[in-house]
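Internal QA ticket QA-208
Title: Verify multi-chain structure generation after dependency bump
Assignee: T.L.

Test input:
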Amino acid sequence: MIAWQMSAGLALALFMLGLLGLLARRSLVFVMMSIEIMLNAAGLLFITAGMRWGNPDGQIMLILVLNLAGAELALGLILILRLRNRITNLDGDSVNLLRDVP
Amino acid sequence: MIIVFYAAAGLTLLTTAAAITRANPVHALLFFVLSLIGMGVIFFTMGAPFAAALEIIVYAGAIMVLFLFVVMMLSLDIAAKRRETGWMIHSVWIVPLVLVAGLGIELVRVFLGSSATGVERIVSPQEVGLRLFTTDLSAVELASILLLTGLIGAFHLGRKDR
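Actual output:
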């Protein structure tokens, strides 16, 4: 019997690790990976909440989270591939302008 | 079952921490795949076998391999790794650690305020499918619209300039 606080605490720890990576890393690849870690932690919390009451809704929400992660990752990776032509070092701080600089 | 849960939880935490601190993106992604497999084991011990299978097949198997292909297409060389190591100085981590610790204290207070109860029962894949395709059918439609939007967006953005 696993207390639900244990897995909720694990989801919380994973979310904090993802947020830490999102704030501290500068490379866009690692920013995308940190977002995936945070989405994954949210999925674990959904499963925990579903299992707390023995309800299938948690797993249904996990399927939606997986969909969201897939769609978001495809668009984000395409944007990184396009940005690779402009900035060669993949630094998130260097794409802070909305127009081309001559 | 509880030993398996704690072992998988420790593995997941360790590999996630390793993933966000690597300088090489390919190593980080492989650590993250390990963390996802640990997450699948956690789902299984919590009585959600369908979610465990989905986590490993879809997340670790499909989404992360797509990520890995794109990272390999970026062709990051030894200079990129050195630049990455140069960005990871100690002072970069201080402010994020303080902010994240603040969030953690808030949330731990919320979780500790309620009584501890365990998992009630195992929810079978039949039950999930039955609920998904009867009462939650709109969620399936929403997911398909989301995937179609992602497909069109990726196709549009990935086209060559003319």
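Spot checks passed. Chain B has two domains: 2-121, 124-162.
Status: verified.
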